[in-house]
Design goal:
Elements lengths: L5 E2 L3 E2 L2 H4 L29 H11 L21 H14 L3 E5 L2 H12 L4 E5 L5 H10 L6 E4 L6 H14 L1 E8 L11 H15 L4 E5 L17 E5 L13 E5 L1 H14 L5 H12 L1 H21 L6 E2 L9 H9 L6 E5 L3 H10 L4 E2 L9 E3 L11 H7 L5 E5 L5 H19 L1
Parallel strand pairs: 4-5, 4-6, 6-7, 7-8, 12-13
Antiparallel strand pairs: 1-2, 3-9, 8-9, 10-11, 11-14, 13-14
The structure holds pyridoxal-5'-phosphate (PLP).
Length: about 425
């Protein structure tokens, strides 16, 4: 962290104060206030000796001397835009190392492959993002890596039961957890997963990696690394990018946990291009502001939905009953509810009617953009599950998922209200 990160040498500045400056030296770019886009595939090195040294560091034959890498070589390995984006993103979780990727899935796949080998097992929370589910259960199984879902994500005993089962099947190498879950906002105990990983090390002499997909609340409202996770993974496509105009991912954590991930990234080739890195730098300047505004809107909408006589259950982080285990977890590991919720309209017919009646909110999958998006999980993002699996997970045919954006909250509530009135009207 540079001198610019301290105020009067006393305390660290908040991430939002550093998003405009950290990790970028303007004197190296003619005083340009914003980092230029380093639209280059390769970098010239000053001497043959330095070229040799850069390669030895990049290949791990020599320890790195510089902060991040031995030197700039080739954009699949590193690029100034990539490095600035990584350094800035790290600030939110105080991570030692960060790696950005060409998508959230590239980040997830690279982390898993970096830490798992044939014969290993993975414990994961369910439901998990559809791409992750397919990667674990349709692809990795063919490489002899088996995944064990946690039966009732959220309860501590379920986590331990899944871990014991995974150990009976092979070497337990990873906990891969999404918290809160999507779309029902169930929380999994991050510190509890860390304890289970330590306990597992005592039993089987191998300490599993705790990896948390932090896309839904992070990095503003949840920082898994502070609760003992080894790696925090992001689809930057969602809140961090924030404008539904880019695809990117990231993983961050200790140097030890991230070493194999950073080494594998250029081999699988999922590095992030300089132009998208530059878009991300722009997005990160307003990240805290956007997430705070969206969360404020979402909190008002969730309360309004909960009071609405035509709406069934509403699922939103922090809304679990006072004194419940879920509420306790929310208070311990989240500092805000985010802006993704779901609610039940009773039937697929009512859900479809409601979606088609919306005027301001748009029908689309994805989430975390400045615009409000709405979808029907059972026939879109969770359509890969069987009806039995969905009902086991509590995802009903009447469930609507809403990703609240940054519009004026009164306009959003008016839109939801007119759509609800229209459906309930046509039913009579
Ligand atoms: C979107 C998403 C992903 C995948 O990210 P991409 O950027 O689309 O590859 C992974 N996990 C969660 C929770 C997501 O919402």
């Amino acid at each position: 962290m540079g001198e610019d990160d301290r105020q009067g040498g006393k305390r660290k500045l908040h991430p939002e104060s550093l998003m405009m400056s950290h990790g970028y030296d303007a004197t190296l770019s003619q005083g340009s206030v914003k980092p230029p886009i380093f639209q280059t595939s390769t970098f010239s090195y000053p001497s043959a000796e330095e070229g040799r040294s850069f390669f030895d560091v990049a290949a791990g034959r020599e320890p790195g001397t510089a902060d991040v890498d031995g030197g700039l070589i080739y954009t699949r390995y590193n690029n100034p835009n990539m490095q600035i984006a990584e350094e800035r993103l790290s600030l939110f979780e105080d991570a030692e190392r960060c790696a950005v990727f060409s998508s959230g899935m590239a980040a997830i796949a690279t982390c898993v492959l970096a830490h798992c080998r044939p014969g290993d097992t993975i414990v994961y929370s369910r439901p998990i993002y559809g791409g992750t589910d397919a990667f674990l259960n349709k692809f990795l199984t063919e490489f002899g890596i088996t995944s064990v879902p946690i039966a009732n994500t959220g309860s501590a005993s379920a986590l331990h039961e899944a871990a014991a089962k995974a150990r009976s099947m092979g070497r337990l190498a990873m906990f891969l957890l999404e918290t809160p879950s999507n779309p029902l906002a169930r929380l999994t105990d991050i510190a509890g997963a860390r304890d289970a990983a330590v306990e597992s090390a005592g039993i089987s002499q191998h300490r599993p990696i705790v990896a948390i997909d932090n896309t839904l609340l992070g990095p503003v409202f949840q920082q898994p690394l502070r609760h003992g996770a080894d790696i925090s993974i992001y689809s930057l496509t969602k809140y961090v990018g924030g404008h539904s105009d880019l695809i990117a991912g990231a993983a961050m954590g200790s140097a030890e946990a991230m070493g194999p991930v950073r080494a594998l990234r250029p081999l699988l080739g999922g590095s992030l291009d300089p132009h998208t890195c530059s878009l991300l730098l722009r997005s990160m300047e307003t990240l805290t502001m956007r997430m705070s505004k969206a969360a404020e809107n979402a909190t008002a909408i969730a309360a309004w939905l909960q009071r609405h006589p035509d709406v069934g259950d509403v699922f939103f982080p922090g809304m679990a009953a006072e004194g419940s285990c879920q509420r306790g977890l929310y208070e311990t590991q989240c500092s805000g509810p985010g802006a993704l919720m779901s609610f039940d309209l009773g039937s697929r017919e009512a859900a479809f009617g409601f979606l088609d009646a919306l005027r301001l909110a748009r029908q689309a999958v994805s989430l975390g953009g400045t615009e409000t998006l709405c979808c029907h999980p059972a026939t879109t993002v969770l359509s890969g599950l069987t009806p039995e699996e969905r009902s086991e997970l509590g995802v009903s045919d009447g469930l609507i998922r809403l990703s609240v954006g940054c519009e004026h909250v009164d306009d959003l509530i008016d839109d939801l209200d007119q759509a609800l009135n229209k459906v309930m009207h046509s039913k009579n």
